[in-house]
What we know:
The chain is an alpha+beta fold and about 325 residues long. Helix content is about 40%, strand content about 10%.
Amino acid sequence: THSRYSRDSLAGFCEEYPAQCEGIDPEKAAPFYRDARRFAYDFPSAVEKYDLTGERLQELVDALELIYKSRVSYTDAVFGGLVRAIDEQGLAEESLIAMTADHGETLYRENSLFKWSHSFDFAPDVINVPFIVRGPEIKPGRYTGVSSSADVFPTLAALAKVPIEKGQATLGVNLATSLTEGAPPSREVAFSHTGLWPPIAKRWWMNRPHLLKFHPRYDPNDIWVSARADDLLVKYRYDGAGKFIYEAFDLAADPKETRDIFDAEDPRQHSLVEQLGRYRKILIDAHVDPREMAPKGPQPDEATMIKQLRALGYID
């Protein structure tokens, strides 16, 4: 499911789910595979280069969504096979099984800043990731509070009865009692922040005007932050026109974040704004430029790092 999305599963998916594929031509996605980073981080120039308007754009969107579905289906089948094998061996009562992800993926939305991407933005498609846990003491159901990826480690450690040394996992919250005893959610606010583009890849990013409009420098002072409490999400981001702005969204009523409801006088929003300020300061104060860090052990040379970044799809 990671861009650039593999098409290896498409034929099997369409054979199993023909209705999902009807009327969609996967070849319409060809421009994306020729120029994936442009589509992700400099979409306005992709529109101009490939004349992506009206029906032509919709055909490409439909084709990529179909390919992505085929990869989700494949991942689901592989994971399902693993769980089934555990059960068939009679190990279910001895197994703690968890599935999560480091990020989601934007699959083109009109109001998303970066299309077909998972970096440098707070699109709900990107920051809302699964965390599915199955174990002998876990009650079936859905966790009703907000959670963070930082909670995964302390929660799984507690469920596995593995002690955590003092000082570890200070950012994460142990959600285990909510999963095993139905205790009220123990986390009230979940924070997120954007990354910084890799300095080693500067010459690639400098060729992306749309990206540079919103992330002009490698500087921790330009980092974006967001905070979610229940279904209220508040963001602090660069507007691309010289200043940072706050935005707020009601994710229950507006899951695609189409209506900004930020109100500086609203008490709940004001509280999240103050917490965001403290969170952002921690990030800025703790930042260490990787170019200034003393190397520990053998370090890859620039050519190797570039090869690794290219393999991950972060540079062309």
